[in-house]
Specification:
Blueprint: E1 7-19, E2 24-28, E3 34-38, E4 44-47, H1 62-66, E5 72-80, E6 87-95, H2 110-127, E7 154-156, H3 157-174, H4 177-193, E8 195-198, E9 203-206, E10 209-213, E11 216-220, E12 232-233, H5 234-240, H6 242-251, H7 254-271, E13 282-283, E14 301-303, H8 304-308, H9 310-322, H10 325-341, E15 354-356, E16 371-373, H11 374-390, H12 394-411, E17 422-424, E18 442-443, H13 444-461, H14 464-480, E19 492-493, H15 516-533, E20 538-542, E21 553-555, E22 566-573, E23 576-578, E24 581-582, E25 587-589, E26 599-605, H16 608-614
Parallel strand pairs: 4-6
Antiparallel strand pairs: 1-2, 1-5, 2-3, 5-6, 7-10, 8-9, 10-11, 12-13, 14-15, 16-17, 18-19, 20-26, 21-25, 22-23, 22-26, 24-25
């Protein structure tokens, strides 16, 4: 088809040349194509700016920035047909930083401040804090674009748990008491309202949620969603632990540990396939049987969520909180399972995500069919590299690199920036691009997976190509996903970066969104950029109960990072210097008994001189 009509779009790339006289510049896209961009008298420019920051105009300095080769820039404008290639005139430009190789999202406090802003937004939306006390009876799953409640009275266990996770990470980075207060109150609310202790089998499992009607509450045991109806899906049980586990890292509350151990017992006794490996995706709610006929299309199935989501949701943090070998072994088991069964590179650049009991591929299930969620591939790469720092295995690095090298061509938007959602795993005959399943929109959580994957890949493996991809992904996210009007982040953008604000995708709270991914991104981006890449120290906050942690040992490492890459430099208890800590093991020996204390630690990247001195 001959393109003889106008249309508007975004082009992202690196400045190659600038012609100030004719007012145009040439940029090179992520995949190496060149595009001439013409400026008009109406073209305006801005810098990327963070939540709670004022608008930052760049129109006056745009010519100087465009004169710098390798300056990264987003250009939105209109294509006009005519001539050999037509003409692209920019309406506006976005600069992620003030020079080549400079990105605002790599400032030491960028992600910390973003986390704080998102956390404050959700506290206000859910509880009208600080004007009113934090009360989880007022929590609602569904929130409008500006945070208003939709009037539903459904409280989903997983969305509460995920919000608790985000608020816990905000406390760890900022020490703001409101974040910890909400995390602890939310965890208690989950225990008192959403938890069921099966005394006969001595396991804990979690209700899907509750419906509130005045002073009455109706507990919803099984999932309310069509894909999982009348079952106990593994991912709901997994994510029920997400927030409480992160809160446990801060407080050492033994009641949280009890709940986690009993839920893991549920996984081991009922979801785990001890014969053929892995974990089943669903259980019958009465018999706890993964092979029950009542499960229909979910009978005796396994999937990415049931095997792979343990690690990022709670298990890595449970290991970080305890250093317990049994959790390291659990992690190793899940990653060995992923490395063994998920790759399918003879048929597709994407992993296979759904399986029958014997690990043969299930490519007819529901909406997924033979399709790939791009973010799941990136999530595997990200978490494999985390695991590699705990237990080195060539298979982990090989698979992570394989994913990292295939995904840009298969799942990224190399012209506009950002990452797509769900695509067909196999090319159509004579096709050059994997077909979109529903749309070419870009979801916030898939951007998170790309950013974290490429940040840690570069931070650990030191490959500059991974840093470039991380910067491009983070630049797109911070240019287009931050809601500077109402707070928080948008669920989806169009391919060109404009927010998509229809249906459930206009909401700030839903079954899919509850501050988890956005605040997880803030927490781990700050950790990876500061501690692994920019080599800047960070401060972290804890508030353990007296004698709560076994042996009074507080583990303070923020994530699983390469051995010897960071050390514990300083510790304060109730703002007074404290010296009983292990520099290399990143643990603090807490004083016995007494009142509850605030602990602040300074974690510093190790230089070659530090490592040499340690030897």
């Amino acid at each position: 088809m001959r393109v003889d009509f106008t249309f508007s779009d975004t082009v992202a790339g690196y400045v190659v040349s600038y012609n100030s006289e004719d007012q145009h510049f040439t940029l090179r896209t992520s995949d190496g194509r060149q595009q001439i961009v013409y400026l008009t008298s109406n073209t305006f420019s801005r810098f990327s700016y963070n939540l709670d920051e004022p608008y930052q105009d760049a129109s006056g300095v745009a010519p100087a920035l465009l004169a710098l080769p390798r300056q990264f820039v987003f250009a939105y404008g209109t294509f006009y047909p005519g001539g050999a290639e037509g003409r692209f005139e920019a309406q506006w430009l976005v600069f992620p930083g003030k020079g080549p190789g400079l990105y605002r999202h790599e400032e030491p406090d960028w992600w910390i401040n973003q986390s704080k802003s998102i956390g404050h937004s959700y506290l206000k939306w859910q509880f009208n804090h600080p004007a009113q006390e934090i009360d989880f009876r007022n929590y609602r799953t569904m929130l409008h674009l500006a945070g208003a409640k939709r009037g539903d009275y459904l409280q989903e266990t997983d969305t509460i748990s995920r919000m608790i996770y985000g608020l816990s990470t905000a406390y760890m980075m900022t020490g703001e008491d409101a974040f910890l207060e909400a995390s602890e109150k939310g965890t208690l609310y989950l225990r008192e309202h959403m938890r069921f202790h099966d005394e006969d089998n001595d396991v804990v499992y979690w209700y899907h949620g509750i419906k509130i009607q005045g002073d009455k509450e109706q507990k919803l045991l099984t999932s309310e969603f069509g894909d999982d109806f009348y079952s106990l899906p593994a991912y709901e049980q997994i994510y029920a632990l997400c927030g409480p586990c992160m809160t446990y890292r801060l407080t050492g509350d033994p009641k949280i540990m009890w709940d986690m151990e009993k839920t893991i017992k549920l996984f081991d006794n009922y979801y785990k396939d001890s014969v053929q490996g892995g974990y089943f995706s669903h259980l019958d709610p009465i018999s706890l049987d993964p092979r029950a006929d009542s499960l229909g299309n979910n009978r005796a199935k396994k999937n990415w969520n049931s095997v792979g989501d343990h690690a990022p949701a709670y298990l890595i943090n449970l290991y970080l909180a305890t250093g317990d070998k049994k959790y390291a072994d659990f992690l190793e088991y899940t990653f060995d399972t992923i490395a063994k069964y998920f790759p399918d590179y003879e048929n597709s650049p994407f992993v296979n995500e759904r399986f029958f009991e014997d690990w043969s591929h299930d490519q007819t299930w529901g909406w997924q069919q033979n399709r790939s969620v791009i973010g799941h591939n990136l999530k595997i790469a990200w978490n494999l590299i985390r695991m590699q720092s705990l237990k080195e295995k060539p298979d982990y690095v090989a698979l992570a690199r394989k994913i990292a090298e295939l995904m840009p061509e298969a799942g990224a938007d190399r012209q506009r920036g950002g990452w797509y959602d769900v695509v067909e795993r196999v090319l159509k005959p004579d096709g050059e691009h994997h077909r979109f399943v529903w749309h070419d929109r870009k979801a916030w959580w898939q951007q998170e997976q790309a950013i974290l994957a490429y940040l840690i890949l570069h931070g650990v493996l030191r490959d500059e190509e991974y840093l470039r991809l991380a910067r491009e992904a983070a630049s797109f996210y911070n240019a287009f996903f931050l809601d500077h009007d109402d707070g928080g982040v948008y669920f989806n953008t169009l391919a060109n970066g404009y927010p998509y604000l229809l249906g459930n995708e206009r909401l700030k709270g839903s079954h899919s969104m509850s501050s988890y991914h956005s605040m997880e991104l803030c927490f781990l981006s700050a950790v990876y950029i500061n501690l692994l890449i920019a080599k800047q120290p960070m401060y972290f906050h804890f508030k353990p109960y007296p004698d709560a942690f076994p042996g009074n040992i507080l583990h303070v490492s923020p994530d699983i990072l390469p051995q010897g890459s960071i050390f514990l430099e300083e510790v304060w208890i109730d703002d007074k210097p404290y010296h009983d800590f292990d520099r290399e093991q990143l643990t603090v020996k807490l004083p016995a008994g007494g009142d509850r204390k605030k602990v602040r630690v300074k974690i510093t990247p190790a230089t070659w001189l530090d490592r040499a001195g340690a030897k």
